[in-house]
Amino acid sequence: MGEQRTWQHRTVWNRTAAVGVLFGSLVFLGCSSKEEVVIPPASAEQVTRLDSAQGKALIDSPAKVLVVDVRPRGEYMSGHLVGAQSIDSTDQAAWEFRTAELDKDLPTVVYCSTAACSENAAGMLIGAGFTQVYDLGGIADWDPSELSVDKPG
User: Which stretches make up the Rhodanese domain (predicted)?
Assistant: First the structure.
């Protein structure tokens, strides 16, 4: 009887040790110096808000992404994200013309000077039939270490 009890204790101890080693390995392997940025999915019915890290990850991804700067042309010319298209959201005729010629099914990142302006323009893009709209907010809210504007020389 004592021999079987010792065997059971060893089995319990071995299982406990195995679980501990497995858990420790998962914790160790799960630790990384570089955090993965999660980009939430977009939908055709609503705008998806991104922070500057998520915006950078989406813009830098291998997928083709449309980046739209909705500030007036003068502000755009003073500095913008590389590759961003200028579509002034306050110029209705230009807005309708430019948005009509764009691929509405591409992931579309929109930004402005302020978060309120960007949010409004993102809603306008949804209304125009864009299916994957991401609101990057206002330039002033971005973390400059993650997103920076390209200033013409």
Answer: 61-151
Domain boundaries, the chain: 1-31, 48-141
DSSP state of 80: B
Q: Is the pTM for the entire model greater than 0.85? A: no
Per-run averaged pLDDT (10 residues), the chain, 153 residues: 54 41 36 60 80 94 95 93 94 94 96 95 94 94 84 70
Catalytic residue among 112, 122, 124, 147: 112
Do residues 130 and 35 touch, judged by C-beta distance below 8 A?
A: no
| pLDDT for 6 | 53
Nearest to 118 by CA among 48, 40, 28: 48
| Distances in whole angstroms, Cα of residue 102 to Cα of each of 24, 30, 97, 129 | 50, 41, 9, 11
Whether 112 is a known active-site residue: answer yes
CATH value of 48-141 in 3.40.250.10, 3.30.1490.20, 3.40.390.10, 3.40.1230.10: 3.40.250.10
